[in-house]
Amino acid sequence: MGSGLVPSPGRMAVDFEERVNFDRLRDYRLGRVRAALDASELGALLCFDINNIRYTTSTQIGEWARDKVARYSLITRGGDPVIWDFGSAAKHHRIYAPWLEPSNSRAGMLGLRGSVAPEAGFFDRAAQEIKAMLDEADVGNAPLGVDIAELPMVFALQRAGIEVRDAQQVMLNARAVKSNDEIMLLSTSAAMVDGAYQLISEILKPGVRENEIVGAVNEYLYGAGSDDVEAINAVSGERCSPHPHNFSDRIIRPGDQAFFDIIQSYNGYRTCYYRTFGVGRATTAQRDAYKKAREWIDVAIEMVKPGLTTDQIARAWPKATEFGFDNEMEAFGLQFGHGLGLALHERPIISRLNSLEHPVRLEEGMVFALETYCPASDGYSAARIEEEIVVTAEGPKVITLFPAEELFVANEY
Question: Strand, coil or helix: what is 82?
Fold first, then answer.
């Protein structure tokens, strides 16, 4: 199992080292989109998912836009990407995003998730504009791929005579294999969380509350250069089993087992990075649970190589009934793997729920997280571990480096 071999350079651009080359990154991503579109039956891709918009156009206006379904982009076969953005952001792109043709950065408004009713006509106006562009590109009679959309937009496209199909599969295919620049961004993002866990190890003491730790880590990460702290799970004591996937205002107590998941992004590239701690001391039951979770994740990591299929990893993990759950749906996300990139969950998704019958073949350049969970025999503690892995021809490279080989006891008595 390799570690520490994936570069995580400083966040600045410098003249004395080759770091992330953003022109090269943009060219790679757009090339992947064009190749995936050409390999599909679609004539164009219309994207409302902001991860797909960023991947295709290299534009971003803030995390507040993530759930608004307000921005959209279009790329036709052989064409250049067009972005419709929120009000003045379009003019900003024309000044600061020279990789886009100025005429391809446009203001757009649909309805802000129904706040402006469809009767106002914005959906139909947008659909007619898109149909005219498809016709001009000679793909007006081909199916149009759409990733996510409000239903009024789908209906408006259909009224305009457009056959709507799924674009998300095409875009996820494009995004599955990361370039060296993307891997450096992912590694740098993980390095920021290494530091966040050092902070947690120092402040994880009896009397502090879960939400106080979440607040401190948010402050640290935004100061370190994060552009979005999407979520932090902080789970301790009797809340550990079953896993609630959230945080609370519970007061940390001596002897607690506590685990955290830090989900944040640097230049859009995300982490999903769990670590488990003992608080002051640890019991035999807690250490035994940690040891099992570590064994399960190490077996999975050692298997990773190009050509491996994800069912093989899933079969190496215990069945749901073997660690306290009635079925695989109920245990989904506990013995789990998922691709990382501009989104938290990309390809491949690895679990007993989906991978046994629908495996995916690993490719060099994929980056994903593997995570395991083991309840303790005391009935309430549990261990949770997660590592982020780069698939290389030489084997797996781990980019999450805060110590996790054994249960880390913070501020040990």
Answer: strand
